[in-house]
# Entry
Amino acid sequence: MARKKIILTIGAFVIFFLFSFVFLLGKSPVKPPREFGATFSAMYAERFGFDWQKAYLAVLDDLGVKKIRLPAYWSEIEKNQGNFDFSRLDWQVEKATERNVEVILALGRKLPRWPECHEPDWVKNQNPDLKNKKLLDYIEVVVNHYKNSPAIKIWQVENEPFLKFGECPDFSKEFLDREIALVRSLDPPPGGRPLMITDSGELSVWVPAARRSDIFGSTLYRVVWNQALGSFKYPLLPSFFRFKKSLTEIFVGPKPMVIIELQGESWARQMTYEIGVGEQYISMNPEIFRQVLAYASQSGFDTFYFWGVEWWYWLKEIEGKPEMWDIAKEAINSLDNDY
# Structure
């Protein structure tokens, strides 16, 4: 009798789970891609050894993105304490403004590209409380510098703050909330810009990030590398993202959600610029990239920011391999402009 009761309980749980899964999938239907943007890092582009300004203009003019995410690296803008050099980022924002390209400006300590946390040398040996104070001071300067720019449409506060990844100090939800409150106070509603918080698509629970944001950004990676398994492909169907999106909305309510990093770059044991094309192509190549685009189109999201444009430019201009660039350009050009 007890065994029968256990079987019935398990069966009821399985049926409930399947019903819930199907129900939540229905709340997040498949959508055709509506917009493609990109993340661009001048710092990362320089590591490939080419002119980052030419690459940036190519992303805007040849690739043709109309949305771009730019990191405001603390380590670059305030190399010396109290001295702020916005020249590189100003140039990028200016070129975006001239082309009516919408900018997400990423602020904070943890921002896109390795080592993830980008602190200036002068602050690294200071105690955590003083570091945090200096970071808040820096964020205030950056927001005040750019809040009158018509190109800046979204503030992103930190990058995947809830994901333990990179060379970073211990994460504090309380300090993240202080950063968010500061940005909101400097650019307040009703005219203030929305805030984006991001998180890992595959490895994180989205609710803490989504709850704090006006717009939530997830990553979407297919082939990755880690020390234990080497290169491997996530065994996840696109419906995983649709389910997760609907489940998150139960807890935080409906709000805009985008794929802020759509994998278009290799992920290997070393940095992409440290290995040859043969090794790069193990985890990302034109065939895999087309598969990623097809997968993304079934994910329930309709706005995607490409990850890897600096690498594509290097492949095209230095290695004579334009395929990755051309596939992305084709995807952008195929969008329904009347959507």
The longest helix spans residues 2-27.
